[in-house]
Design goal:
There is one protein chain. It contains 10 helices and 11 strands. It is α/β, with parallel strands linked by helices. Strands 1-11-8-7-5-6 form a 6-stranded parallel beta sheet. Helix 2 links the parallel strand 2 and strand 3. The chain is globular. The protein starts with a strand and ends with a helix. Bound molecules: guanine. Guanine binds next to strand 4 and helix 6.
Amino acid sequence: MTVIISGKDLAKEKKEALKLKIIDETKKYGRAPHLVVILVGDDPASQSYVKGKEKASIEVGIKNTTILKPSTISEEELLTIIDELNNDDDVDGILVQLPLPKHINEAKIIKSIRVEKDVDGFHPLNVAALFSKQDCILPCTPKGIIEVIDSQKYQIEGKFACVIGRSNIVGLPIYKLLLDRNATVVSCHSRTKNLAEITSQADILVVAIGKPKFVTENMVKDGAFVIDVGVNRNPENGKLCGDVDFDNVKEKTAYITKVPGGIGPMTISSLMENTFECFLRRMNK
Ligand code: GUN
């Protein structure tokens, strides 16, 4: 029997619980948490992610400001906007939607966000804190993945986990979070030699490479927990699809997430929680 996990339902529960906390704290501090999202350019996928963040903010009672800038904005102009937001006491979280146009140095932008307002958990100080087991803001997608696994009361400790993908946003931090939960973890990528040999031994398989239907049945262990983080367009029909060939793999798994409606909504609910956490930390300073 396969359990198809609805990240959408789980995220809804999380947002409802968060909404109640935000009502209390908004009364206590006289203002709601405030998230500012900056979108540069008009990439349709990024536009849709940013809309999702705005919608979720409204649902949970977070004030959301979305700043839209053309792709021609210079790095200096973007840095100036971030600097103003860094110094604005009314702003608790700053998120710059990635990717940015090529002429803008992404690392420089991420580093310019004050670490206390880094709701993405991408700032080098946040990353260093995560990798040295210190207090930090957890990156949203990896946090959501762990919550999805925990929602099934699945024991991570002692399991063999394989992560395909090594991005700063998902692959590397989820590797670390699984390791911290005492799984044995191997980090792979799409060109890892004999990849199927490794992945087909994994109790937990996390895939985050952005290649439509890359993972097929021969790469999956019987009874595995498969987490699909891919968001791609299916070249055959233009519809959204994951990195896992869901129909091909599903029967072999014990637990699987689907695209859409799997990890995506969890990323957003985690972002809402991170914004609330940054707000509380700033208020309690
Ligand atoms: N682009 C894709 N995922 C993310 C994310 O989690 N945060 C930001 N800022 N950009 C993204």
